[in-house]
Each structure stands twice: as structure tokens, then as C-alpha cells.
Specification:
The complex is a heterodimer of chains A (409) and B (426). Chain A is an all-alpha fold. Chain A is 76% helix and 0% strand. Chain B has 13 helices and ten strands. The chains are: A mainly alpha (409), B alpha+beta (426).
Amino acid sequence: MRFGSITILAGMIGALWGGVWMTVTGLLLMLITGLIVVPSIGLAALAGLVTGLAVVMITPAQRNKISLGLVAVGGVILLLVTSGLEPFSTSITQQIFSQIIALLIWSGLVVGSLALCLDGYEAGRAKRYRVEMLLIRLFKGMGLLLFSIFVALPFYIMVMTSLKNQQSLLQNPLDFSIDLTQGMASLFRSYIELFNDYHFGTFLLNSAIVSVVTVVLTLLFAIPGAYAVARLRFPGQLFLSRSILLIYMVPAIVLVIPLYAIFSQLGLRDSLLGLMVVYPATTIPVALYMLQGYFRGLPPELEEAGLMDGLSRWQVITKITMPLALPALASVSLYVFMIAWNEFLFAFMFLDDFQIFTLSRGVVSLNSSEVPRQHLMAGSVVATVPVLVIFLWFEKYLVSGLTAGSVKG
Amino acid sequence: MNHQPPKHVGALAKRERFLAYRMLLPTFLIVLGIVLLPLLANFWISFKSVELGDLRAARPMFNEQLKPRPKTADQEVTLRYRIRNSSKKEALTNVVFTDTLPEGLTLLTVPENCQLDTPNLSCYIGTIDGGKRLDLKLQALVKQAYIDNGIRARSSKPIASYDTVNVLTSLSFTLDNFRKVFSADEFWTVLRVSFYYTIFGTLGALVLGLFAAQILNTSFVGRPVIRGLFLFPYVAPVIAVAFAWVLLLDAGPGGTFNAMLQQMGMVEGPINFLGQKDISVEILGLTINFPMALTTVITFEAWRYFPLSFLFILARMQSIPSDMYEAAEMDGATPFQQFWYLSLPQLLGILSVLFLLRFIWTFNKFDDIFLLTGGAAGTRTLTVDVYEQAFAVSNLGAGAAVAVVVFVVLLSFSILFFKFSPQDDA
């Protein structure tokens, strides 16, 4: 056995992965099967340490499915022996099948992570450069895992809670096992009730109307404005192109009191029309800023050619500039749609009549002790799914839109 | 020879200007109406003593009745107008109303303050003080036609003209709102909490974003999926994610995260992450009060907004020319040295721009804290205070005064930032 910094590191990395993956598989086992589980993290770390040493002692050329598989099986056996056949602090005979699968997954993940980290490394000493490379691999792997859990956990809880009922959750808040035998109608009971008894169909429609109208109005206002700022010369052009974003920095909470007061007196408050006026006003500045940046990047020669051929300015915009700026228009539309769909403050302050609730306002109305929490989570899922679907569908555009917009809070 | 450009503006340039202003006019108008004027209106309201109830402007409410109910023709009845002032505070002056009498109803007497121009009756009522009501009784005779035609006395609504003072537009001002806001003990706590929340929330989102960008700056299987996943917190509606966190961190029975911690043996009893102001932690024999709810709220802020900084930092990282790294490798720089001496300085520009933008936006943030804690347990920031004053205590004036403070703080920070920020934009 060659001893050196890499050998020690391999052991430590193995111990870390052993402990971390044990925590993860233990939790998953608990969430999926409902079994009460306390993963023995310390013993798993020990088993991981031994596994790490074993992997590093196989030369990189000899690491293949068979040799690594043997190490993985060895890890499982080691953990079973050291824990006295209770790796999850509960007798292995309880749901033995799930427990064994969890153990195999655990050791597979540990060995897999080790193989990825230690790829190209063998036991012995190494230069600082190589040591740091190894540490960076560990850091990236761990970071990826922890980040994914951190990001995904609330969404997971949201979806799973919406499919359970309050009583079973109160009994065991860790049991997110889904009984698939109960049938679709029973599984999606909360959703069906939301649409039948809580008017979520209306809310969905209202949200869609408000968001689409906001997008259309924003584009109608922002396209000519952005074109003027990007292409035409007029006094104040420079000032406008720089200061338009400042409008976007005005906090909504400062506007909400006067708008509430004025809209109340005008009778615009408790209406969707009020929202359709306020939302575009708050999104036009940022849309204008994003679009003028894009328009500036388009070659002016094309537009000049159009002008020479006798098109008017408006025709130049609709026939030359807009088709060329289609990607920018798409990303601005998506971005504005997202803002309008997710908006909470004005919808919450303005809307009193449930017939015109948007989804944001509707979900808040579910937040009471009289409504079971799976309804609240089902409402959240209904509000989230459309915007996430659109986002995943057009991710490329939205990402460039977000980075160009750079501002929304 | 004179080589200066011509000073006068040509006809073409004039037309171009005119066109530009016309294209910008709609944007200008809507921004003026919905952003700039309300901003000024907020200043205006902050100097007035306005309550939520005052928004319903004073107006006369009419109730018209025939007593007793006419059953036969030629019956003598009393036509009563009961006029109520809808406002509790403001008086109505010079109230005059006009009503159409139905066919078959004739007045026996017409009082002095009324004029009958058949079928229209108009009466001068004068002043009705706030919260008061006034009755006007007229003797009338019912004819057969009234009973037959089905048009009742109240079928036509009286039309009134009146003068009243609207609190919002009156010219009486007061400094009471500001006096009240600044003299409240909690104001300085609220201000401090706002700054803690803003600074740590912004830094948290930036640091997480930097880490996430580092992790995703290598190619591996499933990278696009992970990148999409990392953007979820930012894209999902705030109500959905905030309630998911509230449920996840619930301290009562059914709280998943607490159950996990207890199951792992990390804590003994459940921790009230969102409802507990301080938690005592002993470190090296020293007892430190750790602000629990505020930390949770800051964590949420970092969780929700790290995707934005992550996107920007990743985009910037991928635009750093790779030959710089190759040169560093040749010189024997280790990976950590490359990050510290090469990547970080290259990212400094985008990091400072992000800090600036996120700082302003986090300071403006209202929804997150409002939905998570409602401003309880030591998490009340200035923006939540605006809501509390204006709509929970229903003192619009005081709320507007806090909003003015928010705006002034923000303005001074923006000016500071723009003065000292590096010139290269993102």
C-alpha cells in the first residue's frame, strides 16, 4: 500500500461521501416508504473511508464495473456488519426489500462519486496542483448535491403535500409515500376540489387574461419607445436611455398607497382593469431598456435601405426591425409574462371580489386555518406549473431575457 | 474658414425629433400616471391625516318611503326622504336633490325649500354634518293611477348636488405622521432590521450564486437539467414558494423539516424557525442571542434570488478568455490560485453591479417577509411597516410617511452607488 497525500485524501473523501449519501438515502427512504429511520451516519462514514481507500488502491486502468462493483458490495457488507444488521437503526427485517435497495443505492452512489472524484488518481503522493484539482472535484460534487437538495426540497414538499391529506401528515410529517392504488380521483382530490369549490378555474383564467394583456400592452408601448431611444436623435436621448431604468427602481410599496387611494376614488380598485393599467406601467421601463439595447445591436443599414426604398418609419419598424428583433421580443414577452403572473402585492391590495381574483390572490385566500394545507399546496402547484412549463419550454429565451433585463427583484 | 457644424436645426432633424417624441409619448404618459404622479401623491398623503375610511368620499345617501303603504285610491300618505351623510367626519354643504314623482302621486303641500315642476320635485336641504341624517316629510295624495301602473315612489332615484371637502385634495397639512413615525421606539429597530435583511440577503444571494456558477462551469451529464432546476426558485411565484417554506419549517405537528432534524437527532425539540425572535446559543461559554426568524427570512431571500446572480456570474465566467487560464497554468498557478487571482478579479465588475441592483431590490422587497412571517418575530422591515401602518392600523398618512422614508433611503443609496460604482456596465 503506497501511502501519501492522495491516499489520505481518498479516505477522507470516501468518509464524506459515505456520510452525506447515507443522510440522503436515509431521508429518501423515510420520505418514500414512510419507515421511521435514523441513518447511522458515523458508521456509513467509516464504511465510506474504507471504500475510498479501496478505490484509490485500484489503479485507474483497472477500475471497471466489476472491480468497482466488488468494492461497492464490500461497502454494503461492512456497513451491515458494523451496524449489527441495523444500518438505518431499525431492524433490517422491516421492509427488508426497501432497506436493501436503499443500501445498494447508497454504496453505488458512494463508489460512483469516488470513481468520478478519483478519476486519474492513484494511491501515493502528488503535487499541490493535483491535490487542489482533487479538492475542487470534491467541492463541485458536494456542492452540486447539496445545492440540488436545497433548491428542490421546498418544491418536493409542495407537490407531495398537495397529494396527501392533512391527517396522515400530522401523524407522520416525514411520510410522503403515495398510495397509488387509491385511484386518480382520490389522489388528485385537492386539485379537483380547488377547481370545483374554490373557483380556481376562474382564477386561472383571470391570471391568464391579466398576464397576456400586460404583455401585449407592454410591447405596444415599449417597441416604439425603444426604437426612438435606439435610433432617432433628439435632445434628451442619452438621458432617457440611462434614466429609464431608474423608474424601475421605484419600490412598489411606495406606489401602493397613492394608487390604492386614487383607484378607490375612481372605482378602478376592485377590478382587473386596474391591474391591467398598473402592471404594464411597471414593466414598460424595463422592456424598453431591454429592447433598445437589442435594437442598437441591429445593423442600421437595413433600415436605411428600407427608408431609401420609400418605407415610412412605422413600416420600417414593423417590416424590418421587429422581425429582426424576434428573439428579443420573445424574451421580453416571457419576462413580462412571468412578472405579471407572479405579481402579488397589487393583486393582494386591490382585489376583494373572488370572481376577479388572480391566482396569487386566490392562493393567499386559501391560507387560513379552515382550509386544509394540502389545498394550499395544490393551489401553489396550480400557480407554479404554468409559469414553470412556459419557462422550461422557452428557457433559452427567458435566460437571455433575464440577463438582459438584469433587474427584476 | 469656419469648420464648425451648423448651429440651426434643419427640417429633417426637426421631423426626427417630433417623431421620437411622438413614439415616446404613450410610455411617458403611462409612467407619469402610474409611477411618477403616485410617487408625488405619496409625498402629499404623508403630510395629511388620512385614514383608510376617509377614502370613501362623503356623499348623501337617500332612502325614500311612502307611509303608510297605499292600498286604496285617494288615500293620504306621507312621502319621506331620509338623507344620510355617508362620511363620519366631513360635512356636506349646499345639498340640493331632484326626484321624479311617479304618476298618480300628487303633493298636498309644497314646503318653502322645495319647488315642484311636475313631475319633478327639487328641494334645497342645506348642510348635513358628518355622521348625521335628516328627514324630509311631505304630505301626498295617492290616485288610482299610482296603484295601477306599478311605478313606485322609490323607482326613481333622487339626484343630488352638494359640496364637500375631500380629505385627499384639501389643503390642510400636518407633520403629525412624521412625528409619529420617528418618535415610535420600534422605528429604529425596523430600520436596523431592514438593513440587516438587505445586506445579508444580498450577500447571501451573491455568494450562493458564485458557488452555483462555479459548480456549473464544468460540463457534465445532466448539466442543462440542473441549470434549469437552479432557476426554479426565481421563476416560481412568490406565494407558492413562500407557503411551501412556511409548511416545510412549521414548528407544530406536521412540520417536515423539524421532524427531519429531530429524527436525525440534531435537535431535541422543534425549532420555530419563522415564529421565534431570538434563540440562545452558547458558544465557548458565551450566550449569544441568535435572531432566528430574521435569519430564516434572509436564507429564503438568498435561496430565492441566487439564480439571478448565478446566471450573470456564469455568463461572465464563460466570457473570460481561456488563454488567460492557459497562461496561468504555464506559470504553475494551482486551481485555487487561478480562482483567487484570475477569476475573482475578472468577476469583480459584475459582482459589484449585481450587489448594487440586488441591494436596491432587496430593500424594496415586501412580499417575501409579508408572506413568511407577516413582519412578526423581529422581521419587520420598512416595507412591511408601510403596509402595517397604512392597512393594518388603517392610517394611510403614517404609512405614506414610512414610504417616504423608504424612498429617501433608497434615493441616497442609489446616488452613492452610482457615484462610486465602476463605469463598465453589465
